[in-house]
Amino acid sequence: MNKKDVLELLLKSPMPQSPDDIRRQLNTNQPRTSVYSYLLRMFRQELLHRKRDNGGISYWISARGVARLKYLQNKEKSL
């Protein structure tokens, strides 16, 4: 799981995703707490939006996240 993977997943998603949904869709074996921490860091970098509802947390990509994803994709192409 890396930043590009998370941003691509959330860009394609029509709805906000829970950390557990993201973890499941990326098919990662990282501990649940690591995924939660990683998403929180991305939120603090303003790459993601988040909301709390009914005791859960949901994330979706921000405009800054879309710009970062484009940068990462272009960087990957130039390698």
Radius of gyration, whole Å: 12 Å
Strand composition percent: 15-25%
CATH architecture: Orthogonal Bundle
**Uncertain parts:** none
CATH superfamily, please?
A: Winged helix-like DNA-binding domain superfamily/Winged helix DNA-binding domain
Quick structural gist:
This protein has 79 residues and is of the alpha+beta class. It has helices spanning 3-12, 19-25, 32-44, 63-78, and strands spanning 48-53, 56-61.
Notable features of this structure?
single chain; 79 residues; alpha+beta; Arc Repressor Mutant, subunit A; two-stranded antiparallel sheet; 4 helices; 58% helix
Topology:
Elements: H1 3-12, H2 19-25, H3 32-44, E1 48-53, E2 56-61, H4 63-78
Antiparallel strand pairs: 1-2
Helix pairs in contact: 1-4, 2-3
Your description of this structure?
With 79 residues, the chain is α+β, with helices and mostly antiparallel strands. The protein has a single domain, classed as Orthogonal Bundle (Arc Repressor Mutant, subunit A), CATH 1.10.10.10. Helix content is 58%, strand content 15%. The protein contains four helices and two strands. The protein has a two-stranded antiparallel sheet with strand order 1-2. α2 packs across α3. The protein is globular and about 40 Å long. The model has no long low-confidence stretch (mean pLDDT 95).
